Amino acid sequence: MKEPQTMDVEYAANLARIDLTVEEKKKFNGQLGDILQYFEKLKAVDVEGVEPMAHAFPRHNVWDEDESRAGFSAEEALSNAPAKRKDQVVVPKVIEE
Amino acid sequence: MPDSLHEKTAAELGECLAQGEASAVEIADAFVARATAVDEKVHAFLHRDDEDFLAQAKRSDERRANGQSRGALDGVPVALKDVISMKGQPLTAASRILENYVSPYDATAVVKLKEAGALVWGRLNLDEFAMGSSTENSAFGATHNPWDLSRVPGGSSGGSAAAVAARQAPLTLGSDTGGSIRQPASLCGVVGMKPTYGMVSRYGLAAFASSLDQIGPFSQTVEDTAILLGAISGHDPLDSTSYPTEVPDYRKGLTENQGPWKLGLPKEFFGEGIDDEVRRLVDEAIAFYQAEGHELVEVSLPQTELAVPVYYVIATAEASSNLARYDGIRYTHRSERAENAIDVYSKSRGEGFGEEVKRRCILGAYGLSSGYYDAYYLRAQKTRTLIRKDFEAAFEQVDAILTPTSPTAAFKQGERSDDPISMYLSDVFTISVNLAGIPGISVPCGFTKDGLPVGLQVIGQAFKESEMLAVAHAYDKTHQFGRRYPEL
Which of B206, B190, B265, B202 is nearest to B444 (CA)? Predict the structure, then answer.
């Protein structure tokens, strides 16, 4: 396991798909490093044999009845899309020529 | 009488309506006038549709005239934090990335409010995507604390708390992921409550951290919170984490439940770091319970100091995943500088998100990333189990737990904005309640020498809101600090 003292902000920002300005990178470098340092507290906890908790009151196999119900029209579903054409969202080309 | 309608509680407004002393239209007019007069100073609202509000009021009056009133909330206004969907109304989450978004559907809580006849009105300010503790992280300007406009109202539901404190709405809804209802309620001198996880449907709530988020009420009194909670609770098939359980009559429970109770005082919550005046006022409230014949028991929640780091690992991880949907493709903002598909994501998010949201998404992505997952996310989830077990052990001894809601009264604007950790620590007393999934309520318990409100937190057992509200009401009905409001 790696033991990070500082965060590679550029690497993590790319994972999060967020463009940062030069100033933001500089500011976050210090701040996120401090926060990680603060998280170090967790390493001292004895969690041997403890089950991880994802939810307070987990519910499993929650099924809906298999029946149709009213949904959005294409127009409603696309009402907030930034670019659309013929009931579809327009996006930049993703296949290389 | 109509002059003072904006001062009234929801229970009083319901009574006025039932007695024919005021109409829903008069009530709606009174709140529009009040908001118009004071919101320039407070900035609780991001958006108001007064026309729709008055149309709803008119329909409420028509129902009543036809003998078809829907009960205690019919004709009573409820304003919404701007993360709760209402069909045809904007939902920005105080973010540039959703600046022009209009909800195509109603949240389940809103559906239920409409069914109860409530007048659902207004979009209330918050920290962007509910990330923050001061409502300074709004892309559309900060909200001011009505008790001292140079101070923060708390957050993230700062607009919801300030609107009630400034008497711009008798009831509001907020969302609470780590204290985002209770902490601003404490700082603004109103009642604010987070229900048990699963009690109120999250359908139509813009997600921040799905395993922690809950919608909950703000009001002047615990009685009003009981009324509003009853209206929005209940199982919803549209939220798979919604819990199938009965919704009791919370209002009736306030008087049916009298104790005597065993009330726990967690020693870890009364250590260093609490402001002296907060400590004194909370101690006085605790002494009241003792004088009333309830038993005080010292309990221990040993993992308390781990709650903040556990929360920030889990909440940022869930946020980085939830906020991936704001990708520039489906919802409103898309960067004009984007040249390819990846660019659309990165540039749209870089332009659309504010600083704190970026910080948290990056932190969350990092905590989930290969090589760090075990050290951060998995370890935090295991520690979360230990925090829940602490509460389970405490509740074997006591009926409810009493603590301060926030270690300090309202702080100055700008004071903590560049220091994320000190901002995170303002939620130190509320966060563990979300991690354990249990309910908590902040009740106003007095004012500092500078005239700033302070809150007492009552923590209850899972799905036992009724008893927790009764404990809170026992204090609130005789003290009524939430009935006071500042000159504006």
Answer: B190
Q: DSSP class of residue B359?
A: H
Q: What is the pLDDT of residues B58-113, one digit of tens each?
A: 999 999 999 999 999 999 999 999 999 999 999 999 999 999 999 999 999 999 99
Q: Give the distance from residue A23's alpha carbon to the nearest chain B alpha carbon, in angstroms.
A: 11
Can you say whether the dihedral through the CA atoms of B332, B336, B340, B345 is positive or negative? negative
CB B144, CB B126: distance < 8 Å: no
What is the distance between the alpha carbons of residues B343 and B347, in angstroms, rounded to a whole number?
5
Q: A-chain residues within 8 Å CB-CB of B386?
A: 45, 47, 50
DSSP element (H, E) containing B123: strand B119-124
d(CA B182, CA B174): 10
Q: How far apart are CA A73 and CA B331, in angstroms?
A: 16
Give the torsion sign (CA, B53, B190, B145, B155).
Answer: negative
Give yes or no for a contact between B488 and B449, defined as CB atoms under 8 angstroms apart. Answer: no
Query: Which residue shows structure tokens 């009505």?
Result: B146
pLDDT in tens, A65-95: 899 988 999 999 999 999 999 999 998 888 7
For B332, the token pair is 């409103």
Q: Is A56 on the interface with B (CB under 8 A)?
A: yes
Backbone torsions φ then ψ of A42, nearest 5 degrees: -65, -25
Q: Residue window 400-439, chain B: list those with CB within 8 Å of chain A.
A: 420-421, 436-438
Instruction: Provide φ and ψ at B443, rounded to 5°.
Output: -120, 130
- The helix/strand/coil state of B233 is strand
Domain coordinates in residue numbering, chain B: 2-262+441-483
Domain B2-262+441-483 has CATH 3.90.1300.10: yes
Are the beta carbons of B233 and B195 closer than 8 angstroms? yes
Q: Are strands B453-459 and B440-447 parallel, antiparallel or unpaired?
A: antiparallel
CA distance B192 to B190: 6
- The predicted complex's ipTM stands at 0.92
